[in-house]
Every structure is written in structure tokens, then in C-alpha cells.
């Protein structure tokens, strides 16, 4: 269960995360085209700059996590609010390719220290093994980032242009994001390694080799699932049309994914919080391959089922990215470990639109075999992960 009294922390951090995601990750979808027209570059160039931001965020992640391990999430996330504002303001003033890429690189610094991984690390720094419900809570709130971000960016661009939209988002980080992150509790003195009992696997402390294997498998799972998630977010309408669906059906089906993600997180918050996070992750990893199988067998008529299975699984796996490292390795050094585990995922995320786009051009709906195959490999990796048992009572307390 969530620790009593942390509802305000979850609400503040969840709202700040909604702002962070809406103003960065979901920004190019609405502003890339007008940005490209004004700057005299192609739309793919704008997305290439965004990909650079994702790569920068991958590199920054481990160091941001280490800072949170040492000092807590409050000062790091407050600094990130300032970085978001600075990066978005720089984007709003960019005049060409070089300033465009420089602005997105600055935003990437903020993304690497201000999105989910940093928020999860901040919660673990505060609540230790009792962080599972809190992690689920902030993903429930921030799950509406696209629902808020896309319409607001569109409205701002229509009223004050894309540059004005960037300045408005920057201002929101100063007047809303910064106070919300400042409202987070101060973390206590960082625990020393001997103060946290080592996580046990099958009743005994894991060897260094076993820790390395577990870390490699987790990093692979996270990279694959983020690749699939980003590929679907970028190419789903075109993919469904290649499968035989009309444009109207493709857009309608795509609209189901957001609610399905939230539904999956509600399921995790309710029923699945009573089971081990590894079992929850395994069930979630089945979603995309099963949805693809249904779509390839029955055609567009079951496209809504595909969207629900993919969306719900993706929603739960977002939580698993925070809970699995906690239950498998414990809270000590969580932030830096989380940064390293997510580094390949961020790189895969940056490559996904381009690589899956090439597959879609070459194979049409057959590109689904690629995503389903990768999803099946992620499920296999989760199946061979050891079922961790932390010190007595810790898994129950999550």
C-alpha cells in the first residue's frame, strides 16, 4: 500500500510529470510542422533534433539518478524545472538548424533528469520498498499528458504561434512545475550500503554475476518495450491502414490506446498490486504480441482489441520500469541503477520512429511481425528472470 500521508506528494509529482511530458515528449507531434515551415527545414529534421534530445537524456540519466540517490529528488527536480524552461525558451528563439538542435539538446538534459525515471527515483529515495503504489499513482496522473498536451499545444500554436507556445510551456514550468517540485518532501540522509539488507533471490544473496545477468535482461526488456511503444505511437495510424483499415478507423482505434493505458494502470493499482511485480510485468508483456496475433489473423475488425491489449500492456510496463528494479535490487543506489538500466531504452526510443518507419515502408503490415517478435523476446526475458524475494515483508509492503 502507499504510505499514509503521501497523497499530496503523488499529486504534486504526478502533475509536474504531466507538465514535463506534455511540453517535451508530446510537443513535436503538434508543433514540428509549423516549426519546420518557419525555420525553412524539413519536418524530419525537427524530429531528428527531437531524437537528439532522447539520446542526450539517455546519457544524462545515470548521473541524474546518482544525484537523487545522494541528495533526494527535490533539488534535482527543481533544477530540472529551470532547465525545461530554459530549453523551451531557447527553442522558441531558434532561428535555424544549429539553434534548433542546440535547444533540443538542452531540453534533452532536462528530460534525462526530469521524466519518469527521475520521479521514480525520487519516490524510492523517500519511501524505499513502499514506493510501488506511489509510482503507480504518478503514472496514473501523468498518463493524461498527451490528452492535455496535444490540444493545448494546438490551441497555443493557433493563437500565438509555435514560438509563443514554446514560451508558454516554459512559463508553466516556472509558475507551476517549479513550485510543485519544490513542494516535495526533503529526503533524509542517504543510507549507507550496510544499512539496506541485500535483496535475496531464491532465499540467498545474489552473486555479482547473477546481478549482472539480471541487469542485462532488464535493460533488454526496457529497451524492447520502449522501442515498441514509441514505434506504435509514431506509426500506428499508417500501420492500421496498411492492415486494411480506413483512415477514420485508424484514428479512432489510435484514440483507444490512451484510455487503455490508464485502464492498465488502474488494474495495477487495484488487483495487480497484490501480486509480485514480475508476474504483473509478464502478463503486461503478453499484450502487444497477443494483439498483433489477433490483428494478423482476423484483420481490421479486431483493431480495437489490438489497441486495448497493446495500450493496457504498455501502461502496466511503464510502472514495471519503476517497480522491477526496486524489487529485484532493493532501494540502495536505485537512482543511478535506474539510469543505467534505462540508457539503452532511451537510445532505442530515439531510433524507433526511423527504424520502424523503414520496416513499414518495406513490409507494410508485415512490420507487425517485427514488433510482435520483439515483444515475444521481451516476454521470454521476463520469464527467465529470477523471482526475487526481498527481506521479509518487503514485497508485501509494496
From TrEMBL:
| Keywords, sorted A to Z | Cell membrane, Membrane, Transmembrane, Transmembrane helix
Which compartment or compartments is the protein found in? Cell membrane
Q: Matching PROSITE patterns, A to Z?
A: MFS
Q: Does the keyword Protein biosynthesis apply?
A: no
Taking every annotated instance into account, which residue ranges of this chain make up the domain Major facilitator superfamily (MFS) profile? 9-390
Among InterPro entries, the record links this protein to: MFS, MFS_dom, MFS_Efflux_Transporters, MFS_trans_sf
Annotated transmembrane regions: 46-64, 76-95, 101-123, 135-156, 162-184, 217-239, 245-267, 279-299, 305-328, 340-361, 367-385
Q: How does it sit in the membrane?
A: Multi-pass membrane protein
Q: Which domain of life is it from?
A: Bacteria
| Main subcellular location | membrane
Q: State the Pfam families in the record.
A: MFS_1
What is the designated name of this protein?
MFS family arabinose efflux permease
Q: Which organism is it from?
A: Hydrogenophaga palleronii
